[in-house]
Design a protein that fits this description.
By secondary structure, this protein is mainly beta. It is built from 2 helices and 8 strands; from the N terminus they run αβββαβββββ. An 8-stranded antiparallel barrel has the order 1-2-3-4-5-6-7-8. The longest helix is centred in the first third of the chain and has 14 residues.
Length: about 220
C-alpha cells in the first residue's frame, strides 16, 4: 500500500506543471460482495472500505482518475433468502486491494475555480487490478492458498458538489465486475478442493463511498487545443 500511495503522489507532482486542475483526497464508506455465497443484494454494505484518489481535470466535463481502495469482502449463507444457501451454511472473508484507472465524465460543466456553488451527477469507468486472498474449501473449512490478482471493470455513478473554492464532496456507488470466480473460494484451481455455485458467472463486489478532495493547480483555460 505504501508503494501505491507513493506512486500516486509522484503522479500528482509529475503532472502539476501542465497547468491543469488537480484533486487529491480520501474516500470512506462500505463494501459488499455478490456471488455464490450469502445474500444477492447488490448494494448492501457490510464491511468498511476506504482509500485515496487523484483526479486530473482536463475540462469541466471530464477528468482522468486514479484510486486505491482497500476493504474486506465477506458473506454468509445464513444471511441469504435462498433456502438452499441457508442449508449449505458456507461463509468466507477475503482482504482485497483495488487499484483503478479510468475516466470520469460530468453530466454538467463543473469548473473547480468557480466561486459559485455547483453540483453535477457523474459516471466513471476504466480498468481495475484487484488483489485478494485465494482460498478454497476443504474438510468443512476454508484454507488459505496465496495472494492472487484479477482484473475488474468498475461501473460507477455519483453526484458531487463544491463546498468551498478548494474542496469538493462526492457520494457514489459502484459495481466491480471481476474476471475471477474465486473471490468466495467457490471455484478454486486446487486438487480435491470443493467447487460449487454457478461456474459460468464471475464474482462482483460493490462500493458505496463518500469522498472529500482538495483542488489545486493553476487556473487553466479550458479551450480547444
Amino acid at each position: 500500500m505504501k508503494k501505491i500511495i507513493f506512486g500516486l503522489i509522484c503522479l500528482v507532482f509529475s503532472t502539476s506543471a501542465t497547468a491543469q486542475i488537480h484533486e487529491i483526497g480520501l474516500a470512506l464508506g462500505g463494501s459488499n460482495y455478490v456471488g455464490d455465497i450469502g445474500p444477492t443484494d447488490y448494494f448492501k454494505p457490510n464491511k468498511l472500505a476506504g482509500g485515496i484518489l487523484y483526479k486530473w481535470n482536463k475540462s469541466p466535463r471530464h477528468a482522468w482518475r486514479a484510486s486505491f481502495t482497500q476493504t474486506t469482502l465477506a458473506s454468509n449463507d445464513r444471511a441469504s433468502d435462498v433456502p438452499s444457501r441457508r442449508d449449505r451454511g458456507y461463509s468466507f472473508r477475503t482482504t482485497t486491494q483495488e487499484l483503478s484507472l479510468g475516466l470520469e465524465f460530468n453530466f454538467f460543466p463543473f469548473d473547480l475555480h468557480s466561486l459559485r456553488p455547483q453540483i453535477t451527477p457523474y459516471v466513471y469507468s476504466g480498468l481495475s487490478v484487484v488483489r485478494y486472498d485465494n482460498q478454497y474449501f476443504l474438510n468443512g473449512g476454508t484454507e488459505y492458498d496465496k495472494k492472487e490478482f484479477t482484473m475488474a471493470i468498475p461501473m460507477v455513478v455519483g453526484v458531487k458538489t463544491n463546498i468551498s473554492p478548494r474542496w469538493v464532496i462526492a457520494a457514489e456507488i459502484g459495481a466491480r465486475y471481476t474476471y475471477s470466480d474465486n473471490l468466495d473460494a467457490s471455484n478454486p484451481d486446487i486438487p480435491n478442493a470443493i467447487k460449487f455455485g454457478n461456474i459460468n458467472s464471475n464474482d462482483w463486489f460493490m462500493f458505496s463511498l463518500l469522498s472529500l478532495t482538495y483542488t489545486f493547480g493553476n487556473n487553466p483555460c479550458f479551450c480547444p487545443e
